[in-house]
Design goal:
Helix content of chain B: 40-55%
Number of strands of chain A: 7
Oligomer: heterodimer
Number of domains of chain B: 1
Shape of chain A: globular
CATH superfamily of chain B: Response regulator
Structural class of chain A: alpha+beta
Distance between the termini of chain A: 14 Å
Number of helices of chain B: 5
Strand order of the largest sheet of chain B: 2-1-3-4-5
CATH superfamily of chain A: CheC-like
Largest sheet of chain B: 5 strands, parallel
CATH class of chain A: Alpha Beta
Strand content of chain A: 25-35%
CATH class of chain B: Alpha Beta
Shape of chain B: globular
Number of helices of chain A: 3
Order of helices and strands of chain A: HEEEHHEEEE
Helix content of chain A: 25-40%
Chain lengths: 165, 116
């Protein structure tokens, strides 16, 4: 399977799954604003996430890389609030845990769609990174695909790093 | 009826407990991984368990639990591939819910499995 086909499939499957997850679990309408792709080898210390909270999950097996879902605090609180039917005023343990669960469901759903096309991989357990304007560096020798979204809860974005074997 | 909810995500456990409460099920035991689930599964009537968890994953828990009990187990997971569903069913899972899900789906599983 060609690298180009893999990326095209990957982007659409992540966009579709993100909409499904947030609509089903948080009752939120989400609009895709498109995707950006950076080919080739990224420099170490290339800055990616720059909002308040990121859910991170690694994948390995047939493909290796990471999935990151990044929100502002306000957006994260609204989405997790929608999942639990309550309102949050601060990013407590439930908001952090909820963001981890969101990246888990988004990556898991995309994995299922990609598996059906013969692209198989295993997912790790999610983690969250918190901090105003936090920075996450891209692994070396990776291709990065960024997907931007808009919603009533605010903008957010998803990044997928594909390790170049 | 006593329900055991197993998931390493506290938020996912709250979502499941809320759904069960809305269906009138209030006797609920929670566990954060398979090991805790083995310790807390003594007198429950049905189990909802995640697959990917630290310490002991859901599939290992199901295999261990099935050595001594036949009560219904529903796997609630992001692992929605055909291969994974078959593996879970072979290991002793009775039914399967793929995340994301609507609360009514969870209640429907209780109805179908307990009434069987």
């Amino acid at each position: 399977m060609s690298e180009i086909l893999l990326k095209d499939d990957l982007v659409q499957d992540f966009i579709d799954t993100t909409k499904e997850v947030l609509e089903t679990m948080a009752n939120a309408k989400v609009t895709s604003l498109g995707s950006r792709e950076i080919d080739g080898t990224l420099k170490d210390l290339d800055v990616t996430a720059c909002m308040d909270i990121t859910g991170v999950l690694g994948f390995s097996g047939g493909r290796r890389g990471s999935v990151l879902v990044t929100f502002s605090a306000e957006t994260a609180m609204k989405f997790v609030g929608g999942m639990l039917g309550m309102e949050f005023e601060e990013m407590d343990g439930d908001v952090r845990d909820g963001v981890g669960e969101l990246v888990n469901m988004i990556a898991g759903g995309a994995k299922t769609k990609l598996q059906a096309k013969g692209i198989d991989f295993q997912l790790s357990i999610p983690n969250t990174v918190i901090g105003s304007n936090h920075q996450i560096t891209a692994p070396q020798s990776s291709t990065r695909v960024c997907m931007d979204f808009e919603s009533e809860a605010g903008p957010f974005f998803i990044e997928v790093y594909l390790k170049q074997d | 009826m006593k329900v055991l909810v197993v998931d390493d995500s506290a938020v996912m456990r709250k979502i499941l407990v809320k759904a069960l409460n809305e269906g009138g099920h209030t006797e609920i035991v929670e566990a954060g991984n398979g090991q805790e689930a083995l310790e807390r599964s003594g007198d429950v009537d049905i189990i909802f368990t995640d697959w990917n968890m630290p310490v002991m994953d859901g599939l290992t828990f199901v295999k261990e639990f099935r050595k001594s009990s036949k009560i219904p187990i529903v796997m609630v997971t992001t692992e929605g591939g055909q291969k994974e569903v078959l593996e879970a069913m072979k290991s002793g899972v009775n039914d399967y819910v793929v995340k994301p899900f609507k609360p009514t789906v969870v209640l429907g599983k209780i109805e179908s499995l307990i009434k069987k």
